[in-house]
């Protein structure tokens, strides 16, 4: 069975030493939170995931979810009790405002805890993750009554939530959706249609499931401007809020998937189900986008989660597996062979993963802090800056963290040789589970288009320019710091590639939008590499300072500096390759007739 | 269910127009084979795979193999009849000399037919593939009696074969193997030990299974110099060659794997099983290496096979799935949406796969032709040149074709969006099946070490120098050909990067072998990119000539040129990135203490 130890120390280092967590003390929910408390909270969460949910991960993969003849769905053995522990610990509603039954703590904490939860058991973590996504949409777009009724019971985990967007004929292109909402005299709507790929769509972990459903009110305009958002509870509510009759929504079947077997991915059938409008009619897509942005950061973190647990297991295996001898002569002559960690190519694989994980965690936390500022700060300038940066980086993080997270799971599996391919070791499950994150919440190609087509040009390029300026300022301020020089120089060169690519897009995409589409995927990854490089430069700066301040930490800080140098030497030069691909343009790929593919 | 059409036309184009198949007419088995006959043979094979084995691929994945209480193993429904068709068609022994019951046709044909067979049904193709590997070892190292007894019945498919190397404590490092062989008075040996990960180890497709087993004769030297190769038949043979008693070898269990579910991967227990020495005592590793080299090319082709079928399905889906609108305005305004093939990023994914497949097929066929020359030519100079090139390129092809083949399966799955993650579409099976090819027959990191540590320095670098010279000569001869210029220039730049990397290795690896290990994986992929670039330049030259010669082929030839230009513009520049990684050396990765990983 795979091992896992939540990276609490690394998270605290990133928050405290790199991201200036104390500097956020003026925000609601942050004030009383000392770094010691943070450590303690994360440690508590870690215990739950390491001891309770991790041991269920392989069990869940094998057992899967089962749909019974009455259309109910049972989760794998142990999931119910584990979910109750998660709920009772207050982890689901950790960042929900106290007036709606949550603990009002930073969203940043939820992001971290979800990282741990997903490493330990991705399928299980998705039940609470979807509930959090649904709460986010209700918090921003529900009316006060809806919030009071639904959020507290979702925050406590007694009820769960889902997001219902996709239909057989429409995934990316929501303008094609056909689920209908017919107004009833009592103000409710009768919802009819079929939704597919609904994660956590039906299960036995909660007393009620609150479905957020996109549908088209009769007579609404065609396309995305005629879509509204509805609450459709699995059980109707009585006047006093208690559970009433069963609503006409049911699970038609469970999909047979490559991975995340323990999360029920459902076909959901709505047949004159009772629904309630959330927010304004025909503005459902906007409401859903709020939920999706948060969900996209959540999915990005899933990529990191799997990459982290895959790394931990590969590193342990590499230290223990005896096979062959070091190229520079036996390192453990008394043993029958050396542990494979003596081999450079094994270290290459491990360091490729690790040098991603630590910086990716920093980026996810930085984005989460931006989200906290955007939602909680009283300073409109700070809010806008945070919103800008978050909006810009969300597609980058979703696309890059899930792509690379998957690649890293594949790499970690490779360290195990043949054993990696065998189910009992658990490594191949990570690959299968991680694969979905590149697809859902907008396939990564859509993230790339969102970056290039919307986020980059938005507000005259304000967000991108501010971010480039921020990095340039860091380079200017730290260029003379001798031990930081390799980091700063690598970053400067990578930023140069990104700026060249951006200039190329400005010159070539307006006249010919296909050039933007052809460049988008590489641009997203180029952007992401620069973001990781920038984060590594900040981590290195903090590690150098930390080692000076506290000699006891010197060894841990040195390890970070090595991982960072590895990143600068081996991962960052990819930016030039991405740039070369980008400037090759769209002409060649567009010149092949569709029927000749 | 996935579609598949064997790429017969492309294969014939490669053999005839690019690789000068007619020029091999003096080799035994090639003489009577006109291009028309080639086409016809391939067409016959294609029918079998498209109509008979392809429909069993998903069935096999779901049903898997089942081990019964008597230790027998049943294959999925339909496999027995399909395997019989394969055997009866003469496809298993196609390239086996006629005196041992084969058809004596070129090995090159077998490589191609195995590509088709694996695309259609990788698990099923592995039963015959292992049999072919075992026959290859017996042909080269068995004595005449062994050849006469075993090969004809294996060539006809009545008997099957396996390779037994791995043990729980030894995969890569065969020096650690402990299976014992005790000499008996009658000249046979009693084999005792446990082997794991034995593909096709036990099944119901053949009347007998001939296991080739590595074991250590009592008193043999320790390490790899004390390993011998044995024949251990599942059923002992009577004096007249008929099947006798059951030998003491049995399947202890079947592994639960990520993919290739329909191939039985067995733990094989040998308990005083009767075995017969093949070749000289203590020289088993050499014999096995012959088998492994051929097997490595076979595994390389598996990567291509999955990439090909994944491409075909993704291209079809992209032409049919309606979603969103072209960035440059609706292309099919009468439909609710455009097919997703209008999107540059979809085309990018498809062309990344396709521009690999066509050149990778050319490389596999070129290596197969080298193998035919090496084994069949009467000209020692030609034999040596072919052996050199084949030895050099075998690890490159195994490593690159399986790595990229897997990545391409992942990419093709991505084209399907959420549907790609669902089992019924079949795309996720390709990913799971393709994953093993990066691991078995020497994990790809081992291929990289084989290239850098053995093949490159062998004979004073003769093979590599000859290959570089061959490419340089092509560049010199075609540099002034105007329409070929982009190909030649791209190739020249890529070759320059490879030569720089090679020079760096020569300067830095001798004094510090870890530098070779640290560079090896990137060097293998850099080498592979240059090989693909060279093949594309040759394909482009042939396509330009073909279009001139036969205007009816102009459209197909133009499609090849587009795919080739895409490769040069977007895939070939990776060489500079690989070079940058290589020259960063081993110091950083070796500086982290093992316990700090």
UniProtKB/TrEMBL annotation, chains A, B:
The reply to whether ATP-binding figures as a keyword in the UniProt entry is no
Q: Which residues form the Acyl-CoA dehydrogenase/oxidase C-terminal domain?
A: 282-451
Q: What is its EC number?
A: 1.3.99.41
**Which InterPro entries has this protein been placed in?**
Acyl-CoA_dh-like_C_dom, Acyl-CoA_Oxase/DH_mid-dom, Acyl-CoA_Oxase/DH_mid-dom_sf, AcylCo_DH-like_C, AcylCo_DH/oxidase_C, AcylCoA_DH/ox_N, AcylCoA_DH/ox_N_sf, AcylCoA_DH/oxidase_NM_dom_sf
Q: Which residues form the Acyl-CoA oxidase/dehydrogenase middle domain?
A: 163-272
Q: Which residues form the Acyl-CoA dehydrogenase/oxidase N-terminal domain?
A: 80-157
Top-level lineage group: Bacteria
Residues of the Acetyl-CoA dehydrogenase-like C-terminal domain: 467-593
Q: Which residues form a coiled coil?
A: none
Which SUPFAM superfamilies is this protein grouped with? Answer: Acyl-CoA dehydrogenase C-terminal domain-like, Acyl-CoA dehydrogenase NM domain-like
The cofactors it requires, by name, are:
FAD
Task: Please list the reactions this protein catalyses.
Answer: 3-(methylsulfanyl)propanoyl-CoA + oxidized [electron-transfer flavoprotein] + H(+) = 3-(methylsulfanyl)acryloyl-CoA + reduced [electron-transfer flavoprotein]
Question: Which Gene3D superfamilies does the annotation name?
Answer: Acyl-CoA dehydrogenase/oxidase, N-terminal domain, Butyryl-CoA Dehydrogenase, subunit A, domain 2, Butyryl-CoA Dehydrogenase, subunit A, domain 3
Q: Which UniProt keywords apply?
A: FAD, Flavoprotein, Oxidoreductase
Q: Name one Pfam family in it.
A: Acyl-CoA_dh_N
GO MF terms listed in the record are: flavin adenine dinucleotide binding; oxidoreductase activity, acting on the CH-CH group of donors
Family affiliation:
Belongs to the acyl-CoA dehydrogenase family.
Job description of the protein: Involved in the assimilation of dimethylsulphoniopropionate (DMSP), an important compound in the fixation of carbon in marine phytoplankton, by mediating the conversion of 3-(methylthio)propanoyl-CoA (MMPA-CoA) to 3-(methylthio)acryloyl-CoA (MTA-CoA).
Q: What is this protein called?
A: 3-methylmercaptopropionyl-CoA dehydrogenase
- Which organism is the protein's source? Methylocystis heyeri
The organism's taxonomy opens as:
Bacteria, Pseudomonadati, Pseudomonadota, Alphaproteobacteria, Hyphomicrobiales
């Amino acid at each position: 069975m795979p091992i896992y130890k939540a990276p609490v120390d690394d998270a605290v280092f990133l928050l405290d030493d790199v991201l200036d967590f104390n500097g956020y003390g003026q925000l609601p929910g942050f004030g009383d939170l000392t770094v010691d408390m943070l450590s303690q909270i994360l440690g508590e969460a870690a215990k739950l995931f390491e001891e309770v949910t991790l041991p269920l991960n392989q069990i869940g993969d094998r057992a899967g979810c089962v749909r019974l003849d009455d259309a109910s769905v049972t989760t794998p053995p142990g999931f119910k009790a584990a979910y109750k522990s998660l709920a009772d610990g207050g982890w689901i509603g950790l960042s929900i405002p106290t007036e709606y039954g949550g603990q009002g703590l930073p969203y940043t904490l939820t992001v971290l805890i979800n990282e741990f939860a997903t490493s330990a058991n991705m399928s299980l973590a998705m039940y609470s993750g979807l509930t959090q996504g649904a709460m986010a949409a209700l918090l921003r777009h529900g009316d006060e009554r809806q919030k009071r009724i639904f959020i507290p019971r979702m925050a406590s985990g007694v009820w769960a939530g889902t997001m219902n967007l996709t239909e057989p004929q429409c995934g990316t292109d929501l303008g094609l959706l056909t689920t209908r909402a017919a107004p009833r005299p009592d103000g409710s709507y009768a919802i009819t249609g079929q939704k597919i790929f609904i994660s956590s769509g039906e299960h036995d972990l909660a007393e009620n499931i609150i479905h957020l459903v996109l549908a088209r009110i009769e007579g609404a305009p065609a396309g995305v401007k005629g879509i509204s958002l509805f609450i459709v509870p699995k059980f109707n509510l009585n006047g006093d809020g208690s559970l009433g009759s069963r609503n006409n929504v049911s699970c038609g079947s469970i999909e047979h998937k490559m991975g995340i077997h323990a999360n029920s991915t459902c076909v959901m059938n709505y047949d004159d189900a009772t629904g309630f409008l959330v927010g304004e009619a025909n503005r459902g897509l906007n409401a859903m986008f709020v939920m999706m942005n948060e969900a996209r950061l959540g999915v990005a973190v899933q990529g990191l989660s799997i990459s982290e647990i895959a790394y931990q297991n590969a590193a342990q295996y590499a230290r223990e597996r005896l096979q062959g001898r070091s190229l520079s002569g036996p390192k453990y002559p008394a043993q029958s062979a050396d542990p494979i960690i003596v081999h450079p190519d094994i270290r290459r694989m491990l360091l490729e993963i690790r040098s991603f994980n630590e910086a990716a965690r920093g980026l996810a936390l930085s984005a989460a802090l931006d989200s906290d500022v955007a939602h909680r700060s009283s300073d409109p300038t700070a809010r806008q800056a945070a919103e800008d940066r978050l909006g810009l980086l969300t597609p980058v993080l979703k696309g890059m963290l899930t792509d690379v997270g998957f690649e890293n799971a594949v790499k970690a599996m490779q360290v195990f040789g043949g054993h990696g391919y065998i189910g009992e070791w658990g490594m191949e499950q990570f690959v299968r589970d991680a694969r979905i994150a590149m697809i859902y919440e907008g396939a990564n190609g859509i993230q790339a288009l969102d970056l290039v087509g919307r986020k980059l040009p938005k507000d005259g390029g304000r967000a991108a320019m501010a971010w480039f300026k921020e990095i340039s300022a860091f380079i200017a301020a730290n260029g003379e710091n001798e031990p930081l020089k390799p980091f700063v120089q690598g970053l400067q060169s990578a930023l140069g590639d990104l700026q060249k690519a951006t200039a190329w897009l400005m010159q070539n995409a307006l006249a010919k939008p296909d050039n933007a589409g052809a460049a988008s995927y590489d641009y997203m990854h180029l952007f992401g590499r620069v973001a990781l490089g920038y984060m590594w430069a900040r981590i290195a700066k903090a590690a150098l300072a930390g080692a000076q301040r506290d000699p006891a930490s010197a060894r841990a800080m040195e390890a970070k500096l090595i991982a960072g140098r590895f990143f600068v030497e081996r991962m960052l030069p990819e930016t030039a390759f991405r740039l070369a691909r980008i400037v090759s343009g769209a002409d060649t790929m567009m010149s092949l007739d569709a029927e000749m593919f």
